[in-house]
Fold this sequence. Notes:
Layout: E1 2-7, H1 14-23, E2 28-30, H2 31-38, H3 46-52, H4 65-72, H5 76-103, E3 108-112, E4 127-132, H6 135-143, H7 150-158, H8 163-169, E5 172-175, H9 180-195
Helix pairs in contact: 1-9, 2-5
Amino acid sequence: MFILGLTGSIGMGKSWGAxxxxxxxxxxxxADACVHNLMSTNGAATTKVEALFPGVxxxxxxxxxxxxxxxxxxxxxxxxxxxxxxxxMVRAEQHKFLQRCRRDNQRLVVLDIPLxxxxxxxxxxxxxxxxxxxxxxxxxxxxRRPNMNLEKFEAILDRQTPDALKRQMAAFVVTTGGxxxxxxxxxxxxxxxxxxxxxxxxxxxxxx
Length: 208
C-alpha cells in the first residue's frame, strides 16, 4: 500500500486536490475534517479543548473555531498545548483509516495533512504531493474567505513552511493557477505513477 501525503499552504487548492483523488477512486483521509469531528458536539476532544480554553464552546456544545483562534493565533504556548492534545488523536484516526484500507487491499491511499511538514508527518508517508499557486492568487483566494483579514492571513502564513520550500521537498507538485481540468490531469498522472510504486511506510505500528 503506497501512502501519499497531500499538503499545501492555505489557499493553494489542497481541498480541490483531495477531491480530485477521490474522483479517481483513491481513498482520502482529511486531517482537518477529522479535527472538526473531534471538536464537534460530543466529539472526543471537545471537553478537553474546553478545559484548556474555557469559553470556546458554542450554543450546540461544539468548539467554536473562531473563538479558539482567538486563543491560539499569535500565542505559541497555547498553540503547542492544543497541538499536543489534537495531533495524537488525529494520528490514531489516520491509523484506523490505513488499517481499513489495508484490509480492503487498496493499492494507493492519500493522507490530506495541512501541516504535513510542520508536524513531522513526512516520515509517515511514502511521498508528498504539494498543491501550489501564484502568491497573488493565494492571497486573493484567502482574503475572500469569511472572517478573514490580512493580519490573520499573515499570522497563518507565519506558522506554515514557505511554499517554495514545500515544493523543493515534494515528490510531486500540482499547480492550481489555471483551469481545474489542468490540475486534475496532473493528479491523474500522479495517481498512475504512485499505483505502480511499492509502499514502504505502512506497518501495524504506523504513527506510534
